[in-house]
Amino acid sequence: MPFKPIKPTDPNCTRRCRFICGTTLALLVAQPVLANAPAAPENSARTQQGQASLLIQSSPLAGSQFHALPDVLTQIRVGDALTLQREPDNPHDANAVRVLWQGHMLGYVPRRENKGIARALDRGEPLVARVVALRPDESPWRRLRFEISTRLSD
User: Fold this and answer.
1) Under 8 Å CB-to-CB from 134, ≥6 apart: which residues?
2) pLDDT the model gives residue 11
3) Band of the pLDDT at 67, cuts 50, 70, 90?
4) Helix or strand or coil: residue 153?
5) How confident is the model over 129-139, as pLDDT tens digits?
6) Is 74 part of any domain?
7) pTM, rounded to two decimals
8) Edge-to-edge strand list for the sheet holding 144-151
9) Residue 136 DSSP label
10) Does a structural domain hold residue 4?
11) Residues 8-64 pLDDT 10s
12) H helices, E strands: number in the chain
């Protein structure tokens, strides 16, 4: 049975629908990679009750060794909210997305995973980021893992 192609650019589809369809398709394509991702720790992030959301991605924090993470790591808790901020003038990556915790620059969304997030932020999509794993004794790429999701309207 052949699959019916998804057309996220359908003119009847809203901007939000196109974003959700596109990210869902991206997650389906990335499924083999995500299947081999390390298991989440037992103390995973808190979810808000009564608020439905769509997980867009789960990522390690890039570049944390060059920013404030080492200084504030003991204060961060699993479930803490993070702020995503575009940095379009970044000379190394035009799709750069900063990850901040309480105003402290922790690092970036990894370059290989930031294009869709950058576009969503540029469109003003309501993205939510949360800490889902802390491993202080690991290498810089494994110290903090975060998830990015979007809240679904009722």
Assistant:
1) 73, 76, 77, 78, 143, 144
2) 54
3) confident
4) coil
5) 999 998 877 77
6) yes
7) 0.65
8) 53-60, 144-151, 127-134, 81-86, 97-101, 104-108
9) T
10) no
11) 555 555 555 566 656 554 554 444 444 444 444 433 334 455 678 899 999 999 988
12) 4, 6
CATH code, 79 = 3.30.70.2330
Tokens of 23: 């990210």
Torsion region of 38: left, alpha or beta (phi above 0 gives left; psi -120 to 50 gives alpha): beta
Per the structure, how many domains does the chain have? 1
- Mind spelling out the 3-state secondary structure of 66-129? HCCHHHHCCCCCCCCEEEEEECCCCCCCCCCEEEEECCEEEEECCHHHCHHHHHHHHCCCCEEE
List all residues 6 or more positions away from 100 whose beta carbon is below 8 Å from its beta carbon. 82, 83, 84, 85, 106
Q: Which range marks the domain in which residue 103 is found?
A: 54-151
For residues 143 and 92, the answer to whether their CB atoms sit within 8 Å is no
Does some domain include residue 10?
no
Q: Residue 16 domain-assigned?
A: no
